[in-house]
Each structure stands twice: as C-alpha cells, then as structure tokens.
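Bug #2210: token dump truncated for ROK family protein?
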Amino acid sequence: MDAIAVDFGATYTRFAVVTSSGKIRRKIVTTTPKTISAIKAMFKRGFDILRQTGVSAKAPLGIASIGPLSSRRGLVLNTPNLGGLSINLKEIVESFHKGPFALLNDCNAAAWGEKVFGVKTKVENLVYIAFGTGLGGGAVVDGHLLLGKDGNAVEIGHIVVDTNSRVRCGCGGMGHWEAFCSGTGLPKLAAQMLGKKLWKTSWEIFESLPRDGRARRVVAKMAEYNAAGYASVINTFDPEILVVGGGLALSHPRETLEKPKHIMKKYQLLRTEMRLSSLGQDAALLGAAAYVLETV
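Reproduced locally. Full output below:
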C-alpha cells in the first residue's frame, strides 16, 4: 500500500507518495507560504500533482509538521516559526482528501523514519535531533514513539543551555538551545557575542569561517552549547543511537556534530553512538508515511 506523506516545515514543504518499503515514488518541494489561504492552495496543488501518479484519494495520509500541535484535532497552534500562525491542517486536507489522517510533530516523525528505514541495525531506543530553521527532537523509547498528550513530546530545542543570556527564543523563552544554535538562532548568538549584527543568516556565518575570526568564535560557542544540549538529551533518554539531521546539520556536520563530540564528555553521564542522518531531508516524510501505514 502507498501513503501520501507531507513534511510541513517553516521554510519548505515536501509532498511525496511513499511505498510501505520506504521508496519515494514522487516528491515535490515548495516554499512554505505565510498565510492560511496560500497554505491551503499549496496543499491542494501538491495533492493534485501527486494524484498524477495514480495514488488514491483515499490513501493513508501522514503529515509531519512544525509545532506546537494539537495532533488529535489536526491543529498547528501559534507556531513561532510562522509568525504565531495557527492552522487547521485536518480541515484543509479533508476538503479534498478522504483517506485516514495522522498528524505528527516533524521531529517525532523523523525519529520514527530513522527507526524504520534509516538505522541499519534494529534499535529500540533512539533520539533524533534536527537543526533547521528551528531546533527539535523526537525519541523512540523501548520501541515506542513518544508523542505526549498533544503530540509535542521531546521539544528539546527549549532546553535551557544558558541562564545568563538575554537572547530570546522564538517561543518567548530565554536561554533556549534553539535560540542559539538553530538557523534563525545563530545570527542572534553572533549579535550577542559581538555587540552588533554582522550577519543576517546562519549561512552567511558559515561562509565567513575561512576568513573571519569572529565567525569562528561564534561557531565555537555554538559547539559548546550543542555539546551541553547533546549531553542533556543523552543523559535523559539513554538512547542506543542519537541521529542528527536537519538542513543546517546536513550542510555543516563538522561544526554541528563533530566538534561538539570532543567537548561534551565533560557534561555526559551516559554514552551513546552519534551519527548524521542517512535519510537526509526525507526522514520526516518517510516517518510520517511509516507511522500512518502502521496505524490504519
């Protein structure tokens, strides 16, 4: 059986038809719009294109989404990475799709995707961390995907890694891991450290590394925060493996993953294997498909 999978992100949205074995038959990637009407039009257009593959209008549908969520009601609630927008995804998709529906936090979906399709050996305890526009996580514990009462379990981007900083997270909190080390957070960290805004995006900071010592200082501080965050997650969940993904990490694994490995021992009680995602940007898509196919 095929499923339709959607990865609804703050920057990009991906639509795909996925088989039960994890093969992607067709995939579309589009920029995520910022208004309800444009989001609804994007979903309708994406589904129309996917149906050209012959996938049924009653196929199981799994959506991996930015949060916070009310997953049972199919809602995205006041999401900070889309300017506080609230979106009724269930209502949107049910206006043109009649198949069974499941809504997951994107990182929870990615964690499930890594367990089912990504990790080559069978594991029962896994944590997935994504560095993208924001910073999030998902966890599989004793073979079960942790969801929480509303589908928002494992919001590890909001772990406090600095109690003295005045950098404010998109959620409004202070000192959160996401506020320093996500795609939107790294320029804020740079501005705090240097006393002025030199770079608008994290990509500009990484591009400046070979020639600018200030950029290297900022990235070194990011590695320190990442080390503290990774250690906190490992000490909390005791996973067999920790998988790191998201656009920022996939593009810059040395800075986001390898450097923190050499720092984090001083923070760790427990040890685990750490690796970059083998599923890349498709982890959440594949996880959403696998989850909905297992639950229908």
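Output looks complete on our side. The chain has ten helices and 13 strands. Marking as cannot-reproduce; reopen if the truncation happens again.
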